[in-house]
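Researcher: Here's a chain I'd like modeled. Treat it as a single chain, no partners, no ligands.
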Amino acid sequence: MAHLRRCAVVDADALFEAARESTPLMYPWMPWCHPGYVIDESRIWLAEQVAAFDAREAFSFAVVGHDGRYLGGCGLNRIDTVNRRANLGYWIRSTATGRGAATQAVQLARDWAFAHTDLIRLEIVVATGNLPSLRVAEKSGALREGVLRRRILLHGVAHDAAIFSFTREP
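Model: Modeled as a single isolated chain. Structure tokens:
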């Protein structure tokens, strides 16, 4: 069983460890998790996320296991306040995949968003080649709306992406 908690700068070592462990699996889909990733990148990113959360510009959470282990991240970004929508993103460290933590994190982030913000739409955009992430979006209950051609640029190459959504019920 996983739970979410707000990201904090003190998570830097745990984030760094999880990212470095997961680089071979994540780098093709998440260029920030590159082979040269260093601890300062974790510290800077977390400080930015704490400030963004306080300003209600983004909401980043640590995904934590029942034993307190840092499993990954999940959050809301690219918030469009005019149309009341946001992107929902997620990742789980490689040694914790396949156990439902990502699916649970997505559902918890969805529930948090609809309880604590006025957002009416959450979007998950996944490169069509990223099969594990596609499965998470599907298992979480998000509605697959279609494929956006050449939507995501990864390592200089444009990829098609599936778009999934959650919407707040009226």
